[in-house]
Amino acid sequence: MTNFKMFDIVDNASDHHFLGSNHKGKDCKDKVMKTIMKEWKILEQNLPESIFVRVYEERIDLLRAAIVGPPFTPYYNGLFFFDFCFPKDYPARPPTVYYHSFGLRLNPNLYADGKVCLSLLNTWNGQKIEKWNKSQSTVLQVLLSLQALVLNEKPYFNEPGYGSKAGKSSGQKSSLAYNEETWLNSCKTMIFLIRKPPKHFEEFIVEHFREQAQTILLACKAYMSGHTKVGDIVQDETSSSPAYRASKQFKTSMLDLYPRLLDWFASKGASVENLRIELKVLPKPAEEVVEKRKDVKSKKMFISLKKLFGCTKIVDNNPKISN
């Protein structure tokens, strides 16, 4: 990502979710302000390359972060935005965090209304060691937890009580289905972000999807063709996952979403026309081809048997023998 700082101080928080919070940044006590400034320094010096943060000069109590979806997950190359608000007594209490969901639920910890459930924020069940600690916890830890623990490879098992299903075939099947739905919602989120980008991230969003459009669309093609399970890295057209078959509902939804996603990428200068043409000749999954061949073979065998026994038609499963 060229020329886009990972951390920066900006001056306009007009679209921030917590802009109308009860207290203003200027009302923060000196001790709280100093603590927040320390947080700024930690973020500026330690952010990983996949997390970007903007803080506000006139609203020191607010912060916005963008997280790039990690590889090997159904969030890969997606963008996920979070607005933070520091309480008046920070760090005695953790910040409040809002997720820009656009009304979509793509993780058990991220609600469609923007609520973020995380032990470190004291909004999710967890052991004491996982809870917010005013002496040790930081915003950087929250961001890293969101990226690693929430946007993970198998988010289905984040749901309370579902962890016990991880070793069962039924649980794995449900997890694969959840990943399919998550990928669809992640792609829809991409479109929402392109249409209405959060302030101060407009150029970042355009450049990110312009650079990653080919990778994202190749993954879409591989996933909806049934060759590759959602979350696996797609290197080229030959990428595949053993013993995997995408659901018909997912393939149908993906085929509907794909052209719209491609059009939005193209509208921002992404070179994707080659993928538009290739979509017309999208190959069917090998499993569907085999099933179709089986159906044809069975039909031919049935016709042969009818001729052999002199059957002209089938009525109530009882063959009528011709004279």
From TrEMBL:
Record flagged with keyword Nucleotide-binding: no
SUPFAM superfamilies linked: UBC-like (SSF54495)
Organism domain of life: Eukaryota
Domain UBC core: from-to ranges: 31-189
CDD domains in the record: UBCc_UBE2O
A molecular function (GO) term: ubiquitin conjugating enzyme activity
InterPro entries for this protein: UBC (IPR000608), UBQ-conjugating_enzyme/RWD (IPR016135)
Gene3D superfamilies xrefs: Ubiquitin Conjugating Enzyme
Assigned keywords, A-Z: Transferase, Ubl conjugation pathway
SMART domains: UBCc
The protein, known as: UBC core domain-containing protein
Annotated organism of origin: Aquilegia coerulea (Rocky mountain columbine)
Lineage, top ranks: Eukaryota, Viridiplantae, Streptophyta, Embryophyta, Tracheophyta
